Each structure stands twice: as structure tokens, then as C-alpha cells.
Prior knowledge:
This protein has 132 residues and is of the alpha+beta class. The protein has one domain: Nuclear Transport Factor 2, Chain: A.
Amino acid sequence: MSQDSLQVVQAFYEAMKTGNVPGALGQLDPNVDWNEAENFVYADQSPYRGTDDLVNGLFLRFVTAWEGFGAVPEQFIANGDRVVALGRYRGTYRETSKSVDAQFAHVYKVANGKIVHFQQYTDTAQFRDVTK
């Protein structure tokens, strides 16, 4: 199960990296429970429930507000249905022209070949400072 779960999460990142939104959404359960870190700039609508809520409430905000934004995983840890991705966020906030380069830890739960739960941990102060 660890390898299958890992492959689902890796496919999600690969699709996001290449801008393949349908491919990324294909890795998510339609009722995914997506949680941004407490005090994160886009935690105001967290938890995001379902792919429509996630796309409209979170992903579109990143696309419109950031230039070159990406979540780049550097390491994966998998155990059963849980996968942790460790990496960095990078991008420039259009309104302030300030850049972010922040560590992240993403914790996923995978069931039936789909991501059903996500929890983000990151340097929320860095994002706050870049967006003000």
C-alpha cells in the first residue's frame, strides 16, 4: 500500500508542476478534505471540502496572485496509506513583487487510489510578510 499511495502523491505533484490541472484533480477524491496551515494566508476558507471548493477557493487564488509559484517536493516518506512530502514553496507575489522560499511538510492520506485528506505545515510568517 505504501508504494501505491506514494505513486498517487507523486503523480499529483508532477501534474501540478506541468500545469496539468485535470491530471492533478484526477489524483484527488471528489470529496477531498484539504487543510491549510493555521494562520496561512489562504487558511481563511480552510478546510476546503471537495475539488470544486479546492479549485475555486485555493488553486485559483495561487494562479492569479502569484508568479511562478510552485510546491517542489524534495523528499517523500510513505507508510501505508500515509505519505509525507517535504519540500519548498517558491514564487513571487504579484502585488508586492516579493518572493517566498519556504519549507513545507504536506501530510496526505490516500484511500482507494485517491488523495482523501491533506494537511499543510509551512512558514506562515514568511507568506504573511510577502503578501503585505
